Amino acid sequence: MPVRRLPDTLVDRIAAGEVVERPASAVKELVENAIDAGASRIDIAVADGGRSLIRIIDDGCGMDAGDLELAVERHATSKLGGDDLLDIHTLGFRGEALPSIGSVSRMSVTSRAQGAGAHAVELDNGRKSGPKPAALSRGTVIEVRDLFAAVPARLKFLKSTTAETQAVSDVVRRLALAHPQVGFVLSSDGRTLIDAPPQKAPDLAGRIASVLGADYADNAIMIDAEREGVRLTGLAGLPTFHRGSARWQFLFVNGRPVRDRQLISAIRAGYQDVLARDRFPFVCLFVSLSPREVDVNVHPAKAEVRFRDPGLVRGLVVSALRRAFADAAPQTASEDLGERLAAMAQAAGQGGFPPQPGYRTGFAEPSPVWRAEPALSPERRAALAGLFAPSADARADAAPASAEAMSLPLGAARAQLHETYIVAQTGDGVVIVDQHAAHERLVYERMKASLARDGVARQALLVPEVVDLDPADAERLLARADELERLGFVVEDFGPGAVCVREVPAMLKTGDVAGLLRDVADDLAEMDASTRLEDRLNHVAATMACYGSVRAGRRLRPEEMNALLREIEATPNASQCNHGRPTFVKLSLADIEKLFGRR
Prior knowledge:
The chain has 599 residues and is an alpha+beta fold. It folds into three domains: 8-193, 2-Layer Sandwich (Heat Shock Protein 90), CATH 3.30.565.10; 212-327, 2-Layer Sandwich (Ribosomal Protein S5, domain 2), CATH 3.30.230; 390-599, 2-Layer Sandwich (formyl-coa transferase, domain 3), CATH 3.30.1540. It is built from 21 helices and 24 strands. Strands 5-4-3-6-2-1-7-8 form an eight-stranded mixed beta sheet. A five-stranded mixed beta sheet has the order 9-10-15-12-13. A four-stranded antiparallel beta sheet has the order 18-19-20-24. The longest helix is centred in the last third of the chain and has 20 residues, at 435-454. The N and C termini lie far apart (81 Å). The relative contact order is 0.08.
């Protein structure tokens, strides 16, 4: 078959397959254009998951007739002043969105620039008409109808209306979080899904509350760190505020929503010690750096980026998260406390304890013994009352210590339940502590501090192990030989594509040395950094801490319980055990009063 030039309509549809994968992709491109146009409010409406209708209305700068006619042509844009693709300050820059969407739908664009009249242009699956005069007060209105109707193969691969609507909602949610100064309204088939008014001042917590819900802002800590020109800001959820998927991880680079593997890996490393393995944290993090230090032109949908120095960015994310958790006061997530309290109150309201077999209440049938008992004399009543009244000396000794302890975050120990849980009273409520989980974290943090202070003890192999690797992987490992030695691994060159392991961390015994080294080499090849060995050492330390901590079922004296409470308050990451479970739960007095209907 001879080589031939493809018709323009087919070229546009091929390009649209890269840019417009589904209705959510079209919404993303059009909303980003509105943001680049300086809009302060953007209204998005979809019908049938975006198949039948996508309507975007913004109050941005708009376009005159000449710009409007050119805007629907391929590779026409106002966002690149020259040919430098490493100095991009806008969300869009390729000039592909409008012609790509118009080639697979019936699209109309109506726009009005300040000081000019409104005009409209239409594209019917790539065939253009206009511009022609129209009526519009300001900004731009874009309507996309019958998306992919002329491309049945693409239409067939779309998911259900619910799934496509959810994808659109996720796109708008991420853009709304990235640009709190812009108001967003999303409606689907006449039902409002997102209504986020513009924030007059930079208020990420307020925008998160309006877009995701107050629980997400209330159960997160502020992140603000900077290193060598790269700044990281945002909110990171408490380790006990976790989710079942990574859908609630919102990452932005220079205001652009991204799904970057390196950043996701860094977040996982930052939560490594404090989160259960099968759970995912909530994060909303913003990486800001010079546009020349990041390439955003590596993915058709601009969903991925490439950093000039990925190790710097990864190190900043990991250290910022770990430092924030270490510096934060002990606290656990409160998002489901209200639901639990409501369930408890409902269960309590359904009746008392069920009657036990063979038990008869004294009120219904007073026992003969009770009826025959004479009334207490005043003398005996006074004696019994004295049994429950502490002496004045005891009150004088106990009151100051109790008041001082109750003013502390975890209060004063009052009891031990089932030889497993410590009940402490605070100035405004009650704290229940899982003694094993809490002590496990304390022992683990001591072990990590000892490793950092004294280094990792090494054990020489009786017979050095030679590990065969790809030559490039071997070079990467040997280049990091000093770092590996600090972590207990002594490796030497053993010819092309091989390294010789002479010493290993004593904590690891022998284990799969070759497998671990290959994993480290893979990490270095992909991200120019690896925490694999450190993670393995931490895992061993966590296991040792679990076996060396106070077990459930051990009775503790009051002074031991109070000492444990004080150490929890002074230890970083003490709000959760090594497996990500909470070490304590707080109930405020208001919560308790709700249980008994006092509020």
